[in-house]
From TrEMBL:
<dbReference type="GO" id="GO:0005739">
    <property type="term" value="C:mitochondrion"/>
</dbReference>
<dbReference type="GO" id="GO:0032447">
    <property type="term" value="P:protein urmylation"/>
</dbReference>
<feature type="binding site">
    <location>
        <begin position="56"/>
        <end position="58"/>
    </location>
    <ligand>
        <name>ATP</name>
    </ligand>
</feature>
<dbReference type="InterPro" id="IPR032442">
    <property type="entry name" value="CTU1_C"/>
</dbReference>
<dbReference type="GO" id="GO:0005524">
    <property type="term" value="F:ATP binding"/>
</dbReference>
<dbReference type="InterPro" id="IPR000541">
    <property type="entry name" value="Ncs6/Tuc1/Ctu1"/>
</dbReference>
<feature type="domain" description="Cytoplasmic tRNA 2-thiolation protein 1 C-terminal">
    <location>
        <begin position="282"/>
        <end position="312"/>
    </location>
</feature>
<feature type="binding site">
    <location>
        <position position="171"/>
    </location>
    <ligand>
        <name>ATP</name>
    </ligand>
</feature>
<comment type="function">
    <text>Plays a central role in 2-thiolation of mcm(5)S(2)U at tRNA wobble positions of tRNA(Lys), tRNA(Glu) and tRNA(Gln). Directly binds tRNAs and probably acts by catalyzing adenylation of tRNAs, an intermediate required for 2-thiolation. It is unclear whether it acts as a sulfurtransferase that transfers sulfur from thiocarboxylated URM1 onto the uridine of tRNAs at wobble position.</text>
</comment>
<comment type="pathway">
    <text>tRNA modification; 5-methoxycarbonylmethyl-2-thiouridine-tRNA biosynthesis.</text>
</comment>
<dbReference type="InterPro" id="IPR014729">
    <property type="entry name" value="Rossmann-like_a/b/a_fold"/>
</dbReference>
<comment type="similarity">
    <text>Belongs to the TtcA family. CTU1/NCS6/ATPBD3 subfamily.</text>
</comment>
<keyword id="KW-0694">RNA-binding</keyword>
<keyword id="KW-0067">ATP-binding</keyword>
<dbReference type="GO" id="GO:0016779">
    <property type="term" value="F:nucleotidyltransferase activity"/>
</dbReference>
<dbReference type="GO" id="GO:0002144">
    <property type="term" value="C:cytosolic tRNA wobble base thiouridylase complex"/>
</dbReference>
<keyword id="KW-0820">tRNA-binding</keyword>
Length: 343
């Protein structure tokens, strides 16, 4: 006998919600999913009427669902937001070029303006060229640091008040785990925040409207809505450590689906013991971007690339900052150390 929807008790259920275990019909699932995102936005006061918001769009399932739901809720509940899609082109042939085509189609489907900023125009380096120099071990360090700044620069060009990103509950739980595993207290404290305040000039506030949405539900939503998204993994994705955290989380979820939410709640309620040293935020003396060191991570990585010393920004090399700032050459011994990368 077909199972009836637990919510409307009229239509046939087509899915079991991963988050609650309820059997729902398509329409009731759409409604529940959208309402939960709306409640998240309202409860955390993520937006104010009249604000202009950049939606970080990669063409993947999370950001495609985010763009779709933001447009829908903006109209349904009259948020009064001006929405724009903001994409970063890392310069990864065979991956980002294809996913950007998806974003361009989304732009047409959702009738939203689109701005693309590229690593090549911002830094003079594509990820393809970076991987050629640094190999496949530390490439995501470069890419992650550059992307963060690229989104800010794009947002400033667009003059948006805020950026929203497609981070979902699984991503947040995974980041909590990663920061526990690394003992990164400063990040652990920040990573569960649903929105970041403006941290200074050059940094645009960010928020995560899908923070409490399970990845599995995002996939179901995209599937049943027949959204147009790109599902291939990055060709340079080696991040083994994060992979372990992800697998561990998925294993926990299969035994107890609430694990994802429980880990987020644990992260949200952690408090840092008094006296723990936290990095003091200042600004980069070269580019003015937020940094707890004389030079921001992005400038150090870039200097390393431009000097052919890719290890400069990997690990802690703060003692080299003065040398970089005063354009002093490195000694032969230092150069040797900073050149050797494991591929
Ligand atoms: Fe960049 Fe690494 Fe993500 Fe690929 S997997 S887009 S290289 S951060
Ligand atoms: Zn800088």
């Amino acid at each position: 006998m077909p199972v009836l929807c637990n919510s409307c008790a009229e239509k046939r259920a087509v899915l079991k919600r991963p988050k609650t275990g309820h059997s729902l019909c398509k329409e009731c699932f759409f409604w529940a999913f959208e309402e939960e995102v709306h409640q998240t936005i309202v409860a955390a006061k993520l937006f104010k009427p009249g604000e202009s918001v950049g939606i970080a769009a990669s063409g993947g399932k999370d950001s495609t669902v985010l763009a779709h739901v933001m447009k829908l809720l903006n109209e349904r509940y009259k948020y009064g937001l001006e929405l724009t899609l903001l994409s970063v082109d890392e310069g990864i042939t065979g991956y980002r070029d294809d996913s950007l085509e998806t974003v361009k189609r989304n732009q047409q489907q959702y009738e939203l303006p689109l701005k693309i900023v590229s690593y090549e125009e911002l830094y003079g380096w594509t990820m393809d060229a970076i991987v050629k120099q640094v190999g496949l071990k530390n490439n995501c360090t470069f890419c992650g640091v550059f992307r963060r700044q690229a989104l800010d620069r794009g947002a400033i060009m667009l003059k948006v008040d805020k950026i929203c990103t497609g981070h979902n509950a699984d991503d947040v739980a995974e980041t909590v785990l990663m920061n526990v595993l690394r003992g990164d207290i400063a990040r652990l404290r920040r990573c569960t925040a649903i929105s970041t305040a403006s941290e200074g000039d050059g940094v645009v506030p960010r928020c995560k409207p899908l923070k409490y949405a399970y990845e599995k539900e995002i996939v179901l939503y995209a599937y049943f809505k027949k959204l147009d998204y790109f599902s291939t993994e990055c060709i340079y994705s080696p991040n083994a450590y994060r992979g372990y955290a992800r697998t561990f989380l998925k294993d926990l979820e299969s035994v107890r689906p609430s694990s994802i939410m429980d880990i987020i709640h644990s992260g949200e309620n952690l408090s840092v013991k008094e006296g723990v040293r936290m990095p003091v935020q200042g600004t980069c003396s070269r580019c003015g971007y937020i940094s707890s060191q004389p030079l921001c991570k992005s400038c150090v990585l870039l200097e390393g690339l431009n000097r052919g010393l890719p290890k400069l920004g990997i690990g802690k090399h703060h003692r080299f900052h003065e040398k970089i700032l005063s354009q002093q050459p490195f000694t032969e011994k230092e150069e040797k150390k900073l050149k050797s990368v494991e591929f």
